[in-house]
């Protein structure tokens, strides 16, 4: 733990020194991206402008959660609120109506299909924000700005903390693959999944993580974003995984970087998970498969045990 803290401080110091240079380097790349992608992006924005965002089918009753046991609510896309014996963790928080490039008050990018199931003001105090990688639909700067708090720590992938206003959180920790960190009652271990971390074309150095979260009584896997990989076999141990939070959408045609539902189910089983909470579907139009196909396919993959797919619609809760 001491070594990880030393490494985290060293990385943070290096990030502070290079933050301004990074912003300067990013500006021309952003301009190039906009020139290349502008026609398609503005066509998409025009087509979506009049489309209403549907209400979330469920609203979690977060105030009823006790400080005992494991509680989880899927708020949309890859955003899950976890409470482990009263310790709160929020994964890849995205509360914005659109995700993409922020230009002043305008965001050029994807519009939500379904509202977030609970707003930031509805959340309990957050102990940990857990970030898998820097893609804009997982690392939403406006949402992260709203969540800044002196009582909240952030655990993020290596070489991504420069995107955050670090001094506005209690602490920001970068974890490299196979590194662990203890915060409060929880131990966080990062592992390499099969994805990529670049936010723009010139920042391919950014890493991408899956995580194992362990407390005295619970063990949770957050798969982040990944294609099929045998990395989840390394997570398996004599101690079971109570819950695996697994991505199941955006595989058609992006199967080389996003797993399909059957592969997500197989990886959860590789990890030894008792229950699976599917994420990364029903929220944004990222690919060609119909919105409900991912959840239908993973329930079929569960075969005789469909109850192991513990959440199926945005806003549903799981308690153990």
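Q: What amino acid sequence fits the structure above?
A:
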């Amino acid at each position: 733990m001491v070594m990880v803290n030393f490494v985290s401080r060293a990385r943070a110091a290096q990030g502070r020194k290079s933050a301004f240079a990074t912003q300067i380097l990013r500006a021309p790349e952003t301009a190039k991206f906009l020139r290349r992608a502008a026609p398609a992006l503005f066509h998409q924005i025009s087509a979506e402008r009049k489309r209403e965002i549907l209400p979330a089918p469920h609203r979690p009753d977060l105030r009823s959660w006790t400080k005992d046991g494991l509680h989880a609510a899927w708020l949309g896309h890859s955003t899950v609120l976890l409470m482990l014996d009263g310790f709160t963790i929020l994964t890849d928080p995205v509360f914005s109506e659109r995700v993409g490039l922020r230009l002043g008050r305008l965001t050029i990018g994807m519009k939500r299909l379904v509202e977030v199931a609970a707003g930031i003001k509805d959340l309990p105090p957050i102990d940990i924000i857990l970030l898998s990688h820097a893609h804009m639909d997982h690392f939403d700067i406006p949402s992260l700005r709203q969540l800044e708090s002196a009582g909240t720590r952030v655990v993020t992938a290596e070489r991504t903390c420069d995107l955050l206003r670090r001094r506005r959180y209690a602490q920001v920790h970068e974890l490299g693959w196979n590194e662990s960190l203890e915060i409060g009652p929880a131990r966080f271990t990062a592992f390499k999944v099969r994805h990529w971390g670049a936010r723009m074309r010139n920042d391919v150095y950014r890493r991408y993580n899956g995580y194992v979260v362990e407390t005295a009584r619970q063990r949770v896997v957050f798969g982040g974003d990944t294609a099929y990989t045998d990395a989840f076999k390394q997570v398996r141990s004599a101690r079971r995984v109570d819950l695996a939070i697994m991505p199941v959408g955006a595989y058609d045609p992006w199967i080389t970087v996003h797993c399909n539902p059957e592969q997500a189910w197989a990886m959860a089983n590789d990890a030894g998970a008792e229950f699976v909470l599917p994420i990364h579907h029903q929220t944004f139009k990222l690919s060609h498969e119909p919105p409900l196909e991912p959840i239908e396919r993973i329930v079929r993959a569960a075969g005789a045990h469909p109850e192991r797919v513990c959440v199926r619609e945005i806003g549903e809760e799981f308690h153990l």
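Q: And what stands out in the fold?
A: The chain has one domain: 2-319.
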